[in-house]
Write a structure and sequence with these properties.
By secondary structure, the chain is of the alpha+beta class. Helices cover about 20% and strands about 40% of the residues. The protein has an 18-stranded mixed sheet that branches. It is globular and about 55 Å long.
Length: about 270
């Protein structure tokens, strides 16, 4: 028998939206080169690999791979992993999943139809403007440019500007960061969300990520400060779209999303 791989659409309540991630529950440790090959074969923005840590049933090692690199933090594949574990009966409904990762211990709990994850906050420190980045994005006169832990953060003036971006991905590939977050507050016609964003990461093998949980570790604190309130909803305005709830708690951010399984396959 081979290993089962489950494909889950994360940060959405319906199939074929949100961000797809592959989830593989391993029976024994595997080396990074093998995991990278599987992620390349899956060719999704992330493939997550889980391995039970002990006999408690609630602790797992978790690693994330794009088709080209291993990453330090990934929200949507963590959400997908938790969803798959509960759906397959590997976790009791009231259990707290604990994932041991390169970014420390991350937890996930079920909250009705949503899954709430406890992640580290990655606030953005303001920096000067970066002309090469603005040129690659096609952004003029950004309202803010900053550096969270992994990425660049750019705020622009309107939701329509975020949605209309057509970046030069070849130029962005030369920007030496994991990715670039572009954001604005929600437009006047917005319904059910407080801010919008898009996430570009061609240097990590993904031109545009559909719904990026880890970007909201920065976006949650950023928009809490600017809007003067917490418990926000972000909409990632990619072609697939995705919704992320954020709540800030000290140096942590609670990220909540929904997920749906779309595919199960056997890795031979």
């Amino acid at each position: 028998m081979g290993l089962t791989i489950t494909q889950v659409d994360a940060f959405t309540e319906r199939p074929f939206a949100g961000n797809p991630a592959a989830v593989c529950l391993l029976e024994k440790p595997r080396d990074a080169s093998w995991m990278q090959l599987v992620a390349r074969e899956m060719n999704l923005s992330e493939t997550a690999f889980l391995l039970r840590r002990d006999d408690s049933g609630e602790d797992f090692h978790l690693r994330w791979f794009t088709p080209t690199v291993e990453v330090d933090l990934c929200g949507h594949a963590t959400l997908a992993s938790a969803h798959a574990l509960w759906e397959d009966g590997c976790l009791l409904p009231d259990a707290t999943a604990r994932f041991h990762t390169r970014s420390g211990v991350l937890t996930a709990t079920k909250k009705d139809a949503w899954i709430e994850m406890d992640f580290p906050a990655t606030p953005a420190a303001a920096i000067g403007r970066v002309p090469a980045l603005e040129s690659a994005l096609g952004v003029k006169e950004p309202r803010f440019t900053g550096r969270p832990r992994f990425d660049y953060l750019i705020e622009v003036g309107a939701e329509e500007e975020v949605r209309a971006l057509r970046p030069d991905f070849a130029a962005l590939r030369h920007i030496q960061v994991r990715g670039v977050i572009v954001t604005s507050r929600a437009g006047p016609a917005a319904s059910g969300y407080d801010f919008v964003s898009r996430f570009f990461a061609p240097g990590s093998g993904i031109d545009e990520d559909p719904a990026t949980g880890s970007a909201h570790c920065c976006l949650g604190p950023y928009w809490k400060e600017r809007l003067g309130r917490d418990n926000l909803v972000g909409y990632q305005a990619s072609a697939r779209g995705g919704f992320v709830r954020t709540h800030c708690s000290g140096d942590r951010v609670l990220l909540s999303g929904q997920a749906v399984t779309v595919l199960r396959a056997e890795l031979l």
